[in-house]
Structures are given as C-alpha cells and as structure tokens.
Amino acid sequence: MSSKRAKAARLIGPKKLTRFERARVVGARALQISMGAPVLIDVSQSSKSPIDIALMELEQGVLPISIRRTLPDGESQNIPLKLLLEGESRK
After folding, report:
1. Which helix (H) or strand (E) holds 70?
2. SS3 call for 14
3. What is the 3-state secondary structure (H, E, C) of 66-87?
C-alpha cells in the first residue's frame, strides 16, 4: 500500500509545463476558440487571434485542463495544468 502512495505522490516528468505540452495546450485551446467555444477571460474588442487569447488564458491559469504524462512501462499520470503552472512561477 505504501508503495502506491509513494508512486502517486511522485510527479512524472518535470514540475513545469514543457514547451511541447505548452504548444499542444495553446493549439488545442485556440482551435476550440476558433470553433466558437466561450472565452474564459475578458478580452478587449480589438481583433485578437485565437492563439493570442489561448496564450492569455494559459498565462492567467484559467484553463480546466489536465496533462497526461506516460512512462514507457505504461504507467500514466494526469496532472492538473494549475499545478504545472505553479511550478513555473516558483523558479
């Protein structure tokens, strides 16, 4: 039992969002916005691209997204985006 707890407490990968994860999140969210999804932040009426809006949403930490990280042995972990953004702000 204690080994399962130790594995659950251990974070797979770095304690921050990788550049690949960041690109995937921004791209997926920009696609959602371009397809008519509601914007989660207040944006001025000036013409902002969906990518700019997605970046602002990511920076403000309002996206309810989890990142799934998988090890080669098949073990995977869902990590809330907010946890990874907190790791970036600490450094």
Report:
1. strand 66-70
2. coil
3. EEEEECCCCCEEEEEHHHHHHH
Annotated domain spans of the chain: 18-90
Superfamily assignment of 18-90 in CATH? RNA polymerase subunit, RPB6/omega (3.90.940.10)
DSSP 8-state secondary structure symbol assigned to residue 38: P
Give the residue-averaged pLDDT of 10-19: 90
Burial 71-81 (b: 16+ CB within 10 A, else e): eeeeeebebeb
In the three-class reduction of DSSP (H, G, I as helix; E, B as strand; rest coil), residue 78 is classed as strand
What is the tens place of the pLDDT at every residue in 56-70?
Answer: 999 999 999 999 999
